[in-house]
Structure formats: C-alpha cells, structure tokens
Amino acid sequence: MLKLSPKELEIASLRIGGLTAKAIAERFSRSEETIQCHLKNIHHKLGVHKRSEIEAALSQRSSNTAQPSTARVIPESAEQPQTETQ
Predict the structure, then answer these.
(1) 84 belongs to a structural domain
(2) Are 24 and 14 in contact (CB under 8 A)?
(3) What is the mean pLDDT of residues 18-24?
(4) CB 35 within 8 Å of CB 24
(5) pTM for the whole structure
(6) Which residues, in sequence order, are CB contacts of 75 under 8 Å at separation 6+?
(7) Most C-beta atoms within 10 A of its C-beta, which of 27, 48, 59, 66?
(8) ∠ at Cα 24 (2, 5), nearest 5°?
(9) CA dist., res. 12 & res. 22, Å (int)
C-alpha cells in the first residue's frame, strides 16, 4: 500500500464520516471532480474498491505503524570520539 498525503487522509476521514464527494468539495471549495480524483487515488493507494473498505484499510495501516520501533537511538554524548591515525 502506498502512503496517503495529508489531504488524502483528511478527505478519507470525511468520507468515512459519511460526507459525499459533493459535500467534501464544498467544504474545501473545490470541484466535485477534484474530490472524485482524490477519492480514486485513495482507493488505489489503499487497494480498496468500496467506501466501506477505506476505514478498515486505514485502521489496519495505523495498527501496523503504531508498533514500537526496534531501532536504538544512540545519544550524541554516548558516541565514541574519533582518534587520528598517523
């Protein structure tokens, strides 16, 4: 799955909330065709075909990204000083 832009996330959440493409277009002062294009991109990026599948796909994504990272961050103060070799 591809990453959604901030605008696509906002449009997706409004769509999940029950707003029509026309209502979303009015909210953003955009044409309904522009919002339909965003929705098409959202569906493509999430790999879904129905409006009802958007919420499930976003929920799955957020649970996958909410897991803690296993990478360790080493503070600068803990770094070893470089020694010169001659």
Answers:
(1) no
(2) yes
(3) 96
(4) yes
(5) 0.69
(6) none
(7) 48
(8) 20
(9) 14
Which domain, by its residues, includes 16? 6-62
Asked whether the predicted pLDDT for residue 19 surpasses 70, the reply is: yes
65-85 in b/e form (b: 16+ CB < 10 A) is eeeeeeeeeeeeeeeeeeeee
59-80 pLDDT, tens digit per residue, is 887 776 544 434 344 444 444 4
Q: Is residue 67 part of a domain?
A: no
Tokens of 86: 């001659």
Residue 12 lies in a domain: yes
Tell me the per-residue pLDDT of 42-53, one tens digit each, with 9 for 90 and over. 999 999 999 889
The CATH number of whichever domain residue 23 belongs to comes to 1.10.10.10
- Among residues 5, 43, 2, the alpha carbon closest in space to that of 21 is found at 43
> How far is residue 73's CA from residue 28's CA, in Å, rounded to a whole number?
40
| Structural domain includes residue 23 | yes
